[in-house]
Design a protein that fits this description.
alpha/beta, Rossmann fold, 2-enoyl-CoA Hydratase, Chain A, domain 1, eight-stranded mixed sheet, oxidoreductase, (3S)-3-hydroxyacyl-CoA dehydrogenase (NAD+) activity, 3-hydroxyacyl-CoA dehydrogenase
Length: 828
């Protein structure tokens, strides 16, 4: 890369040229970051110059409206849509003049792109960065149409769809691209768009799609060779390997079979030219027929699968394609004894190792896994080179690309480590399989250095990332790169260890006087172990409070917490151990109070699913530092309960805060407090769950002072900095309130009337109404005169009363059992 041109240092405004699915969603995600975006597309064919602006900008305006209704949601909050200005290439190109970054995302056609660049150059600022979102065309060929001085600020930015949710961004420079320009976009996309940024060489399909396409094509080849069915391959290539649970073909339907075919054909057209050793892998005939028939997946209603209504429990019934006859038949649940055994292994590395050790001679699953994984190892290893012919410079780029672009839990080299490099390679060699040169390099190094069990990665607490990787070109282990501010609890534990732990949680020293309470039970369900550790750690007399100045509650898992341990609760209810239920609720309340009244500030950093009790922990903290992708909700009513750990209490306090500027109505009651209470009542009664941290603010689960982290890898650091800042400002723990003005019986009566109306209209069931009335009771302070001062413990007692009463209801017990069985709520 060249270093001659210094681009604009800050991205303040962006233009996206091309309002198709990818372009419009890139624009939406930039708007999520709070930046204004110009979204332009062509004037529809046949529309004259004298036509109205809406007619001439029909494509961009249509895409803009589509973004507001998109599923999954393109915006964190719909309010961000105001930042997008739609237009067209002919009338509005001048609007790019004040844009710092221009992203081209039009059709994959060299001539069309070159023609658009000619228009762009008439208006683009000299220091603005221009990138292309091509997934197939060579960046060097696209750069050929640009003046020399512009080439320094031109390169590829390959987003994955949908851009809001898919973390990978591949940056593809040309030989003339300025390193400074790459750094500017890399920094912006990391910090503001939450991207995991990987640099790829300018080779076909770059890194992720090169390896991903091979993996999919090879799975299809093996299916045909071994006469497996589509649903069998999906079962084998899903969660068992740490890959998306959809498996190969269901994922293809979701992405679009035409999209997968486009990427595959791009590879096919250049495979021989670049000397790819698996140039023989091509789209099979049955998929080409599907493309001709427009069986493109979910977008056309059928692909590898076709919906055929719903079952008795509301789940989609699907028929599956028979790839040999191209007829659809009812999908069957595959049975593989090897997979059934593997389900008992929670650790993905250990599970994959077990799968690969199966007897391929006698077991159908093992027979599939051996070539699938070993050929993946070889193919991935061959994509790493110190020459420009291959896309990746290091194995770290490959693993990062596959984890964040294809949502694999482990990259190919991490999978290789899991199954044992030496033992697997020796078995491959004995079978006459080709061995990659980079694998031979690792084994040669290991033999010279007496390493019996060599691995691509080694833990090393002395480097920021916590591990090193083997570089075959220098024959040495180098630190895995880690951008400043990115880390994880697992990485920190390697260098600082664990202060204390039990089965559900640990206390970890983050440094600088801040400790983390890490949740690590299954799905982080809140059982007695987590409740006990949090309570004991945060109480004023604890050793940790004496030794640390602030705390963070977070974790490394996919979800912060799915709420209370329902299985534990149901078993206790079924045994009619009511005193035990009461003690459990009191213990949970004591935990949330410990969070709130801890002498040290507690910052909760939630992410993924944060439900029920997870929300209650968050509500009681001094501050919150959520990840942008946050699915947060008090969902207890879905299982026939109400929040019992102080959730209603804290939402009532928020209602009162919202109504502090008292504007009495004709009866002298606060309109603001009533409206705020009503809103919070609806949120709890409907078990509303946010689809982002921004939306969680609107539901009053977060405060506007709670900053949001977009890059998941930065969450621990950002939460630690927030906790440290609160401590440095001179933190004083709140004092339990005894003067809370309860909304009381008049607001309670109004809310109960609303519940009655819903029941009369048959919008809710009798049990829904009973649960909702208990929510109203706890959220208003019960049957007291409006404005009666009550204490926090009084409100906690109301919650516990309601929770225990509902636990005794048969319909609540049925709901809990149903949710545990299906993962869905029961309307009874």
């Amino acid at each position: 890369m060249a270093n001659s041109s210094a681009p604009v240092r800050t991205i303040r405004k962006v233009a996206v040229l091309g309002a198709g699915t990818m372009g419009s969603r890139i624009a939406a995600h930039v708007a999520n970051a709070g930046l204004p975006v110009v979204l332009l597309d062509i004037v529809p064919p046949g529309v004259e110059s004298g036509a109205t602006k809406p007619e001439r900008s029909k494509f961009a305006l249509g895409a803009f409206e589509g973004l507001k209704k998109a599923k999954p949601a393109a915006f964190y909050a719909l309010d961000s849509a105001r930042l997008i200005t739609p237009g067209n290439f002919d009338d509005d190109m001048a609007q790019i003049a004040d844009c710092d970054w221009i992203v081209e995302a039009i059709a994959e056609n060299l001539e069309i792109k070159h023609a658009l660049y000619a228009k762009v150059l008439q208006h683009k600022r000299a220091d603005a960065i221009l990138t292309t979102n091509t997934s197939g065309l060579p960046i060097a060929s696209l750069a050929d149409a640009l003046p020399t001085e512009v080439r320094a600020l031109f390169f590829g930015t390959h987003f994955f769809n949908p851009p809001r949710y898919m973390r990978l961004l591949e940056l593809i420079p040309s030989p003339q691209t300025s390193a400074d320009a790459i750094a500017v976009i890399s920094h912006f996309c990391d910090q503001r768009l939450g991207k995991s940024v990987v640099t790829s060489r300018d080779t076909p399909n770059f890194i992720a799609n090169r390896i991903g396409t091979f993996s999919i094509a090879n799975a299809i080849r093996l299916m045909q060779e071994q006469w497996l069915t589509i649903e069998e391959v999906d079962a084998l290539t899903g969660a068992a390997l740490g890959w998306p649970k959809t498996g190969t073909f269901r994922l293809g339907d979701m992405v679009g079979i035409d999209v997968l075919a486009h990427v595959a054909r791009n590879f096919e057209s250049r495979a021989s030219e670049i000397g790819d050793e698996r140039a023989d892998l091509k789209l099979p005939a049955f998929i080409r027929t599907m493309l001709e028939k427009k069986w493109l997946g979910d977008k056309t209603g059928q692909g590898f699968y076709r919906k055929e209504g719903k079952d008795a429990e509301g789940r989609d019934l699907r028929h599956v394609l028979d790839w040999q006859t191209l007829d659809y038949r009812p999908a069957e649940r595959p049975k593989f004894p090897l997979l059934d055994l593997a389900k008992n292994v929670e650790s993905t590395p250990a599970r994959v190792a077990q799968l690969l050790q199966g007897d391929a001679a006698h077991d159908k699953a093992a027979r599939f896994y051996w070539p699938l994984l070993t050929e993946l190892f070889t193919y991935a290893a061959n994509r790493v080179s110190d020459k420009d012919k291959e896309p990746a410079r290091s194995l770290v780029e490959v693993d990062t690309a596959m984890r964040t672009g294809y949502n694999w839990e482990l990259g190919p080299f991490e999978l290789f480590d899991a199954v044992g490099v030496r033992a697997t390679t020796e078995k491959m060699r004995a079978a006459g399989a080709p061995i990659a040169a980079n694998v031979e390099a690792l084994l040669t190094w290991a033999n010279k250095n007496g390493e019996a069990n060599p691995a691509w990665y080694k833990d090393d607490a002395t480097v920021p990332s916590g591990r090193r990787y083997f570089d075959p070109f220098s024959q040495s282990y180098k630190p895995v790169p880690a951008a400043e501010g990115t880390t994880s609890i697992a990485t920190i534990k390697k260098s600082r260890g664990v202060v204390k732990k039990n089965a559900g949680a640990s206390v970890v020293d983050l440094g600088d006087g801040v400790a983390a309470i890490e949740l690590h039970s299954k799905m982080n369900a809140l059982g007695g172990d987590i409740v006990s550790l949090i309570t004991q750690t945060l109480k004023p007399s604890s050793e940790q409070v004496a030794n640390f100045e602030a705390f963070v509650i977070t974790g490394d898992s996919s979800n912060f917490s799915v709420g209370a341990n329902l299985m534990q609760l149901l078993l206790t209810i079924q045994d009619q151990e009511w005193d035990e239920v009461d003690l459990a609720v009191r213990a949970f309340q004591n935990m949330t109070q410990a969070v709130k009244f801890c002498p040290r500030p507690v910052v909760v950093a939630p992410y993924g699913m944060c439900l029920g009790g997870g929300v209650e922990i968050s509500l009681h903290a001094a501050a919150r530092r959520p990840h942008a992708e946050l699915y947060m909700g008090l969902v207890e009513t879905g299982v026939g309960l109400i929040p019992g750990g102080g959730g209603c209490k804290e939402m009532l306090l928020r209602s009162i805060e919202a109504g502090t500027s008292i504007r009495p109505d004709a009866r002298g009651e606060s309109v603001e407090i009533f409206e705020a209470t009503k809103k919070n009542f609806e949120t709890i009664a409907k078990a509303t769950v946010s689809t982002s941290a921004a939306e969680a603010r609107g539901l009053n689960f977060l405060r506007h002072s709670d900053g949001i982290t977009v890059n998941r890898d930065r969450l621990v650091t950002d939460a630690k900095l927030r906790a440290r800042a609160i401590a440095d400002a001179g933190y004083t723990a709140p004092v339990a309130r005894v003067d809370i003005p309860a909304p009381g019986e008049s607001v309670l009566a109004t809310l109960k009337l609303a519940v009655w109306t819903m029941r009369e209209g048959q919008y809710i069931s009798d049990h829904d109404a009973k649960v909702a009335n208990w929510v109203a009771y706890a959220l208003t302070g019960g049957k007291v005169t409006p404005g009666t001062p009550v204490c926090e413990q009084y409100l906690l007692d109301l919650e516990r009363e309601a929770f225990l009463s509902l636990c005794g209801e048969k319909k609540t017990q049925e709901r809990i059992a149903f949710t545990l069985k299906t993962g869905k709520p029961l309307r009874n």
